Amino acid sequence: MDEHxxxxxxxxxxxxxxxxxxxxxxVARLALVxxxxxxxxxxxxxxxxxxxxxxxxxxxxxxxxxxxxxxxVVAVDVTQRVRPVPVEAQLRAIHELGALAMADASCAAxxxxxxxxxxxxxxxxxxxxxxGAVPAEPDLALVRLLSQAGCRVIAEGRYDTPQRAAAARxxxxxxxxxxxxxxxxxxxxxxxxxxxxARD
Length: 200
What we know:
Blueprint: H1 4-16, E1 22-25, H2 27-36, E2 41-44, H3 60-69, E3 73-77, H4 87-96, E4 100-104, H5 108-117, E5 121-123, H6 140-148, E6 153-156, H7 162-170, E7 175-177, H8 180-183, H9 185-198
Parallel strand pairs: 1-2, 2-3, 3-4, 4-5, 5-6, 6-7
């Protein structure tokens, strides 16, 4: 499914189903999606770096290219880990380019620091993904805490059923990002296959 034309068609299908915005990885793909849709786009670039565990939009170049490609919002990893560019520099660049800044956080400390620094949106994107076993459930407690602190929160991470997405909204999320359950056919098929095999 990781092919530019397929991603554009999946984006259009998501909008036909009721999505009101899209999170798109990759500059080239985002540019193509931008040509096909008019809804807000959250742009990211994922990189595997040898000298940093930060994967989501780690470079200033990524910020510039995403905005040039049509991103309305640029999301960056704001975890407190070794990184190639300070979070503050990324935030400043995003705002100078006229886009909104989204903080992909792993915990309350990450998110609240980013919100205080001036990020427009905080996401629970990396909760459960920065070490140890990945939890099965989404981090609704983090959504609730951040919402109660006054943050504009996008719930993200393991919101793989309509019920979980609705629970995020009930917990105070401004919006919910649904990833694998929509975009990764092989993962969804695996869920069904595992459930069926467990009954055999």
